[in-house]
UniProtKB/TrEMBL annotation:
It comes from the Bacteria. Pfam families: PseudoU_synth_1. The gene is truA. The keyword tRNA processing applies. InterPro entries: PsdUridine_synth_cat_dom_sf, PsdUridine_synth_TruA, PsdUridine_synth_TruA_a/b_dom, PsdUridine_synth_TruA_C, TruA/RsuA/RluB/E/F_N. This is tRNA pseudouridine synthase A. The active site is at 61 (nucleophile). Formation of pseudouridine at positions 38, 39 and 40 in the anticodon stem and loop of transfer RNAs. Keywords: Isomerase, tRNA processing. It comes from Janthinobacterium svalbardensis. Its EC number is 5.4.99.12. Belongs to the tRNA pseudouridine synthase TruA family.
Length: 276
């Protein structure tokens, strides 16, 4: 009589991750081990007793924070879904936390199955800029700093030409590895909250340093150094050297990843900026 064995089905576990990036060398794994991904996978291994490879929605650079990074991995392990939050957090440093977990049943090899990176429809970043004549140690590492007064209305007038599909080469880092510089810009909002100016930028995807380069050029407009129509000319020029320098990473937050509602991923109420 033939023995029939049934393989334990893989489950795709999705995690919502939040971190203060100040102490870490970005998200992606490196040899020195001082990255968010290294810390997460080490914590997963300590909790699950097996090495689990993770995939994220978007890699962040050194010093960049995440209000909501989305990560997935596949496993045969049977765990209560909430234990992936409590159990993994027990092994993570205080600057990194799993905020929620979701188990997705199905076949991860199917092309249209959920993927943290490829299923993302849009990504939103906040850039927080402390705009005061004197720097504050209370926002050190959590906000960029610029001492000259900024005119928010002038900066708002400048962003319209950036909306829609465009070649964003003028705001692309030299080391960017993206296959194409063409991205869909959904929305750019700029608001002042007390001494902070907050830039909220949503696109289908971003080039390396794209947000920080955009903020740097918008600051030129906010000070009156350049006119609002300069940003559109920069975009058309496709010349990175014509734009402003890259702004510091301190104030950059990966804020939200947009997915099809059919995946029913949890919404984290802490993915706002309550401290600004």
């Amino acid at each position: 009589m033939q023995n029939i064995t049934t393989a334990t089905p893989f489950k795709r576990i999705v995690l919502g991750l939040q971190y203060d990036g100040t102490a870490w060398h970005g998200y992606q794994k490196q040899e020195d081990g001082q990255t968010v991904q290294d810390q997460l996978e080490n914590a997963l291994e300590q909790f699950a007793r097996v090495r689990l490879a993770t995939t994220c929605a978007g890699r962040t650079d050194t010093g960049v924070h995440a209000l909501e990074q989305v990560v997935h991995f596949d496993t045969e392990l049977n765990r209560d879904v909430h234990s992936w939050v409590r159990g993994v957090n027990a092994f993570l440093p205080k600057s990194i936390a799993v905020r929620w977990a979701k188990e997705l049943a199905g076949d991860p090899t199917v092309n249209d199955f959920f993927h943290a990176r490829f299923s993302a429809r849009a990504r939103t970043y906040h850039y927080v800029l402390y705009n005061n004549a004197t720097r504050s140690p209370l926002v050190e590492g959590r906000a960029g700093f610029f001492f000259r007064p900024l005119d928010v209305e002038l900066m708002r007038q400048a962003v319209q030409p950036l909306l829609g599909w465009h070649d964003f080469t003028a705001f692309r880092a030299a080391q960017c590895q993206a296959k194409s510089p063409v991205k869909l810009m959904h929305d750019i909002r700029i608001e002042r909250r007390g001494d902070c100016v907050i830039f909220t930028i949503t696109a289908n995807a971003f080039l390396h340093h794209m947000v920080r380069n955009l903020v740097g050029s918008l600051v030129y407009i906010g000070t009156g150094r350049e006119k609002p129509d300069w940003l559109g000319h920069l975009l058309e020029s496709k010349d990175r050297h014509a734009a402003a320098p890259t702004f510091m990473p301190d104030g950059l937050y990966l804020a939200q990843i947009d997915y099809d509602p059919k995946w029913e991923l949890p919404q984290d109420s802490s993915s706002a900026l309550p401290w600004f």
